[in-house]
Amino acid sequence: MPDNEGVRVREALRCPLCGNLGAILYSGLRDRYWDAPGSWSLRRCGTCGHLWLDPQPEPGEIGKLYTSYFSHGETPRLPFVGDGFWEKASRGVLEALGYRGIAKGPRERWIGGLLRLMPPVWDECAQVVRSVRGPVRGELFDVGCGNGSYLEVMRALGWRVRGLEPDPVAARIARGRGFDVIERSIEEADIPQESLQVVTMDHVIEHVIDPVQALATAHGWLKEGGQMTITTPNAESRGHRKFRDAWFHLDPPRHLHLFSLRNLMACVERAGLRTVECGTVGSGHLVYDGSVSVRTTGRFRVGDLTTVASGRDRAFRIGESFLVRVRPAAGEEIFLTCKR
To answer: What is the DSSP letter of 186?
Structure first.
């Protein structure tokens, strides 16, 4: 079995979605954020446009790519607790998204309605709940819950929450905060069929070896009419077009796949789910700063995702938030809501 600097791998010449041969788009890629071993390439399918890592790590080797990761760090405070502008804006937007009663009075409710006209601010605030609109309706199950930061947000909004996390360090941190976390991969998790109402996958689907199988497994967990929300980097984003092999979201070797909106929708359909809402958003925190650093130095110190962005990074996000209104596929991240 081939070895890539201590990681057992297999050759991946063909597109995992359509089976056609792919051409190398970038080669000689190395971990630019932490210390995962190996030299990697990214292939692109000339038929469907999907991007994937070549070689692919064997399933039992994936843990070697996560000995350090941002989900091992501390979690930020709740983004809607406080009296600053962003806290008030977040409460107003959450009220508009169906979380009735979180806004403190009519002024904040008015702010939430007004912010629909200000895409950069609306997108930043709405990202708090990852496209899961209110009202609260039972249990929310977060796949790839990391250290539990999203579970903390949703619990504070009234949801009953549980999580799935294969990384033992991140799972231990989440449990230490009082969350019920299953320490398994999607494929290994023993979840009763048709038992869940809401499943979330935030920046997870790009990390799994077989995306369609992972979605099909999660599909089986959903009750009839149950909802799954997915967010993932957008391979056709403005940032990728600008920065190419230095793009922040390439993240070799942890990102095994990079999707276009079209290809993610095709995967969802093959898994037996139906898309009810989808699009892209220009909310890529640190995409500009990280990409510039990788392009100039080959490295970027992520630390944690609460790092304060530069003015240029914020300007890049603001510009992209407006751009997606005329070029819907240009945003840094894909969001997709589907149902059983």
So the answer is: T
Q: Say if CB 122 and CB 115 are below 8 A apart.
A: yes
Residue 163 to residue 157: CA distance in whole angstroms:
16
DSSP reduced 3-state for 24? strand
Fold of 135-339: Rossmann fold (3.40.50)
pLDDT tens, N- to C-terminus, the chain (340 residues): 689 999 999 999 999 999 999 999 999 999 999 999 999 999 999 999 999 999 999 999 999 998 877 555 556 678 898 989 889 999 999 999 999 999 999 999 999 989 988 888 888 888 899 989 999 988 999 999 999 999 999 999 999 999 999 999 999 999 999 999 999 999 999 999 999 999 999 999 999 999 999 999 999 999 999 999 999 999 999 999 999 999 999 999 999 999 999 999 999 999 999 999 999 998 788 999 999 999 999 999 876 566 788 999 999 999 999 999 999 999 999 999 999 9
User: For the chain, where are the E strands, in sequence order?
Assistant: 3-4, 7-10, 22-29, 40-45, 51-54, 56-57, 139-143, 160-164, 181-182, 196-202, 222-233, 257-258, 274-281, 333-339
| Eight-class DSSP state of 230 | E
User: Would you state the structure tokens that stand for residue 105, as one six-digit string?
Assistant: 């009075």
Distance CA 272, CA 216 (A): 7
If you count them, how many residues does the chain have? Answer: 340
Is 3.90.220 the CATH classification of the domain at 3-65?
A: no
**Cα-Cα end-to-end distance for the chain:** 39
Which ranges constitute the DSSP H helices of the chain? 85-96, 106-114, 119-126, 149-156, 168-176, 211-221, 238-243, 261-270, 287-297, 311-323
Domain residue ranges in the chain = 3-65, 135-339
Instruction: Report strand pairing: 222-233 vs 196-202.
Output: parallel
Cα(254)–Cα(135) distance, integer angstroms = 34
Q: Is the pTM higher than 0.90? A: yes
